[in-house]
């Protein structure tokens, strides 16, 4: 869903979709990870690859009609749940939560991203 929402949110004004490299940059994911997810979503009929209209060597990823429908439904559901949360917490606690989330976001933006590609994750490494 994260990848589909990213495509929906950041699509170009001419509806061309995003390149794998653009998706990776926005989400902070490696290109092979994005490619695997795109392959999976394409097999499910959620996204499609199309040649870039200006550069035939480039491929852009777009949501299919099915993918658009799913992301609209998820977006509506998320909004409904957020409204319920605000009603549950009340105005004061909702404002406190908002303030804390803004601080968490600022912290995340100021912290360097880990380089997961340099970490050994095959199970052979010694863990301390």
β content, as a range? Answer: 5-15%
From the spread of the alpha carbons, the general shape counts as globular
Sketch the topology as an H/E string, one letter per element: HHHEEH
What class would the helix/strand composition place it in? mainly alpha
Average pLDDT for all residues: 88
Number of strands: 2
Total helices: the number is: 4
Question: Which regions are unreliable across 5 or more consecutive residues at pLDDT < 50?
Answer: none
Helix content range? 55-70%
Strand order of the biggest β-sheet: 1-2
Instruction: Tell me the span between the first and last alpha carbons.
Output: 34 Å
Give the structure's gist in a few sentences.
By secondary structure, the protein is mainly α.
Written account of the structure:
By secondary structure, the chain is mainly α. Helices cover 59% and strands 8% of the residues. The chain has four helices and two strands; from the N terminus they run αααββα. The chain has helices at 2-10, 20-27, 31-43, 65-110, and strands at residues 47-51, 59-63. Strand 1 (47-51) and strand 2 (59-63) form a beta hairpin. Helix 2 (20-27) packs across helix 3 (31-43). The model has no long low-confidence stretch (mean pLDDT 88).
What key attributes describe this structure?
4 helices; globular; 128 residues; mainly alpha
Write the layout of secondary structure elements.
Elements: H1 2-10, H2 20-27, H3 31-43, E1 47-51, E2 59-63, H4 65-110
Antiparallel strand pairs: 1-2
Helix pairs in contact: 2-3
